[in-house]
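Q: What does the assembly look like in three dimensions?
Context provided by user:
Components: two
Sequences:
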Amino acid sequence: MNLKDYIDNHKEEFDDQTFDQEMVWDKIDMELDRKSAFSRRFLKIAAAVLIIIMAGTSLYVNGYRNGQNNILNASNPEWVEIESFYGEQYTSLISDLVKTDEYDDATKSAFLRTLEALDLEQVRLKNRLKLEPNNEEILTALVNNFKQQIAALELFLNPSAKDDHLKINENEYISM
Amino acid sequence: MINKTLIHNAEQQLITQCVHRDRRAQKQLYQLYAKRMYNVAYRILNDRGLAEDAIQEGFLAVFNGLSKFNQESSLETWMRRIMVNKAVQLLKKETRLKFSSEEVEVMDEDEEIESTAWSVEDIKKGIRSMPLGYQTVVNLYLIEGFDHQEISQILKISVSTSKSQYHRGRKLLQKYLKPLI
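A: Here is the predicted structure of the complete assembly.
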C-alpha cells in the first residue's frame, strides 16, 4: 500500500487531538452575543435614520417649511392659511413621533409607510389646485387629507385619546 | 440510502436553524464538527492555543457565512476550507511563513515506497520533522485532501510552488519512513 492510500484508509486516526470543547464554545457564544448586540444597535440607529428621512420626506411633500415648496401661495391665499394651520399641527406631531419611546423604530417606520398613500394623494390634490386655484372641492379634499393624517398621527401617539377624535373639533380652522 | 437521506435532511434543518441564529442549533453544529476542525487547525499550527483560536474564529465565520453556503460541496468540506484559511492566516502571522517560488521537480513515481509497516503516529512524526513550508503543503495535500490548485489559493502561492513543495516534502517523509519498513 502506498503512502496516500494508507493515509486515506486511516483518515480518522489522524484526528486524535482533543481539547476543551466547552471552553472554546463559551468564547464563541460570548462573541456571538457581542456581535448580535452590535447588530441590534446598528439596526436601531439605521431605523432611526430611516424614520428621520421618511418624516423629512413627508414634511417636504406636505410643504410647510416657511412656505418653501409652496408654489400655490401666491395664487391662493386661502390655501396658505389652511396649510399654515394644519401644517403646524402635522409638523409638531411628526416631531413627537420621532422623539417618542412608546414604539420601537421598526414600528415607527411601518406606521409612516401607512401614511404614504395620504402623502401621495396630497401631492395629487396640490397639482390639481395649481390648475384650478379656487376649486372648493379640491380645497375640501386637501383639508380632509390633512385631518386624516393628523388624526392617524394623534391616534398612534396617544391611542387612549381615540374617543376625542370622534367629537367635533371646535378649534378647526375651516368648516366647509 | 435511507440513513444518508435522513442525515442529509437533519443537516439541512440544522443549517436552516443556524442561518436563523438559533443558538442551540449553532452549538449542535459546533459539537458535531469541533473535534475534526480542531485537528485540521492543529495539524497546520502545531500549537494547542493557536488551534483553539483558529477554530473559534473559524466557527464565527461559519455562522456568519452559512446563509451563503451554496451546497456545491459538503458542509464539512466547506467548513474545513474555512478552518484551514483561518489556521493559515494565524500561521503566517505567528511565523512569518514564506514560500519561495521553485520550479517543479518531477519525481520518479517508482521512488514511491509501498508498505503497511508504518503507523499513523510515524507519519505524523515524519511530517512534523519537516521544515514548516513542506509540512503545511504535505498536510494540506495528503491529509486534508486539497489539490494543488486549491492549495495555491489557500497559501497564495503558485500551483508549481505547491507541487514542488509537496514533492520535496514527500521525499523527506519517505526518507523518514524508509528505515521503519
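Follow-up: Chain B has two domains: 2-95, 109-180.
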